[in-house]
Amino acid sequence: MTATIEELEPPRPPARSLTIRPSVREALWGFVFIGPWLIGLVLFTAGPMLVSLLLSITDFNLVRPEATKFVGLDNYLRLASDPTIGQSLVATFKFAVLAIPITMVASLGFAVLLNHPKLAFKGPLRALVYLPVMIPLVASTLVWIGFLNTETGWLNAILRAVGLPKIDWINSEAWIYPALSLMGLWGIGNFMLINIAGLQSVPTELYEAARMDGAGAWTQFRRITIPLMSPVLLYNLVIILIGTFQYFTQAFVLTNGRGDPNNSTLFMNLVLYREGFIFNHMGYAAAIAWLLFVIVLALTLILFAFARRRVYYAGGER
Amino acid sequence: MTAVARAEGRSFSDRSPVAKSYRRFLGRASILMFALVIISAYLLPLLYMVTTAFQQPGQSTTPGAPAYPAAPQTATYQGQDYPVYSVPMPDGSTRQLILVEPGRESSVFVDPSDAAQTRIEWQGRWRTLQQAWTFAPIVDNFTTAWNQLNFPRLLRNTFLIALLSTIGAVVSSMLVAYGFARFRFRGKNALFVILIATIILPFQVTLIPQYVLFTWLGWNGTWLPLIIPHCFANAYNVFLLRQYFLSIPRELDEAAMIDGAGPFRVLRSVIVPQSVAAITAVALFHFFFAWNDFFVPLLYLSSKPELQPLSIAIQQYNALYATQPTLIQASALMTMAVPIVVFLLAQRAFMRGVVITGVEK
Predict the structure, then answer these.
(1) pTM of the full structure
(2) Nearest-Cα residue of chain A relative to residue B262
């Protein structure tokens, strides 16, 4: 709040403000510059978080805001008994368990391949793998829906050509998560680039020393590359985890928000959207948002706790 | 010890310079081939999209139709068009022949390249034959989708929303990054940790109060909710720019200050010119974020077709025309054309920016 006041009255130019100590003046300027973010933090983050917590203990809706009643913990109790929430939790976790490892392994695999010392045309090839990140998610989802189509899609045509049975990727509960994980491969570009930078930061002397000791490529990768890259891998894992729990656009485009087949793509964010903006249960939707927040926060903290023991920081503990 | 064993096993010619460089070339060629195969498979859906977008509607469901855009081949015989079939001949060869008189058990064909147009009697059921196809891409899908979607309007909306929110995001992030990079004040480190922590915060937690606020302000159904929140800096951009600003020597600031420049002047004439690359990266990132954003426009512009950006419009278009993959893929191709072209032109800036936010802490 102090920042708001200071923005209205910027510090005077140096010539006239000799009475203000330089360190104070510097601090005032600092707050002037970070002011936009501080205001945004209050208006669009901290304030709304507080309001959202308050809304979650009411039955607020936008159509009749004047009829809002305090309902205590009813929304949270309803979370526990609502079968849709149970389904969406199961769906979100099932998808996360499949998609997160696939994304991690694929982005590391591409990074190792596209950082190989003997590979020519590294730049253009990396750009090609990064390219799908630039494609609007709605458009890329439409492309994948076509590509995975049971009758006319190319993936089933390829499976048929090698003598495998066709797969109902989009409409079967068993295959929808693999299908979405395949789609997710188009989003690995950022993680691949970060992994490449991580690979390049490993000192080459370590590999030379390991080779002297007779370590093979796999041992070097496991004993040197992975430990030295662990901070980078942790960063990627946290970002991928958060992204997975906020999954929305692909699922929405796939089924126009219905969550088919049999609610298996009714991810938490989709339930939140339906409750809040279709059914107009905004108090309940706020409670769902807090559940989502608590889950993501808990998983992130678990990851960090795990990382304290497993992640190696070359520059010492940070 | 293994090295010795291997050296003994080699013949003399193996160690000649030519053989050595040949082996090196082979190693390089094979890894390049491997990478190309993997990346081709990775981008195969793009080829599917391009192919489908140029097909006649219904080609993909026609049995025996090829994967590329094609039309059934026809040829003229005595002034009329007849279909062409691949006909297995008694001698074992297959010929492309015009079917002029279909019959139940035997049919009459003509060879299109035969000037005398000799009638060929063929024993067998013509219905079992494969039709011949010819490469025939069409652009009708693009023109249809372009007109049905009112593409010029969508492009204008998307571009304006992305441009305005990019200006807000870049200017605000620059100011905040400068504040964090160059000024000492109490609580700076704690505030910076809070800034980074907002990355982990799921946007859903603030979503509903924001929606209520914007609706209450009368902004629902306008572009303002898509633009204004971005004018208050965001963690990714601030982080990237701060890293860059920190790498600029302070002596440059001090020299400018001795010449009487105030903090805004230093930012404008020292910091900004030194970090054009980082600012470009932030601008491009944000532009594409805004170009591709789906959730927020869905909330505020679902019922306002005249204000919608591309992402919402093509999702609704897909809901209407899901059974016409040719139109859907044409619209998808048109939607991704601008981002892909700009990315290919500015890929270095993009890829460098990703690395800074991800690794350089």
Answers:
(1) 0.83
(2) A13
